Amino acid sequence: MAMGDVVRDPKEFIRSEVVKKIFASKLAEGNANVTLYGCSKCDRVLFTKLHVSPVDDEFFNVERMAWMKMGQVEGTISCVECSQDIGRYQLSNTPTGRIKPLFLVHQLKVKPIVLRLGTLVT
Known about the structure:
This protein is an alpha+beta fold. Helices cover 17% and strands 39% of the residues. The protein has a single domain, classed as Peptide methionine sulfoxide reductase (Metal Binding Protein, Guanine Nucleotide Exchange Factor, Chain A). It contains four helices and eight strands; from the N terminus they run αααββββββββα. The strands form two sheets. Strands 3-4-7-6-5 form a five-stranded antiparallel sheet, with no helix packed on it. A hairpin with a 5-residue loop joins β6 and β7 (99-106).
């Protein structure tokens, strides 16, 4: 399982080898909690707190995940399980000609799932 993959069960997500390596430093520091974000409608785990930077009180800026479907320069981001619209994306050009992606997820369309790593990663 890669970090961009979507899983149904948060425990399955936490037990994956990739996630164990990423959160090993949190365990070593004694911080054994991790926050996942799931669809508010169907609970599908979509991303972790590591992929999020708050934009304002309404949206998160999220890294592009493998499950995100893009067909145009801008569009909606939908849950892969239930197709609920959870946000929008936009690809724009910078003055240097590079493409700057923006993936905004509405905070009310996802819900945090806090898991204690120590009980799941053994």
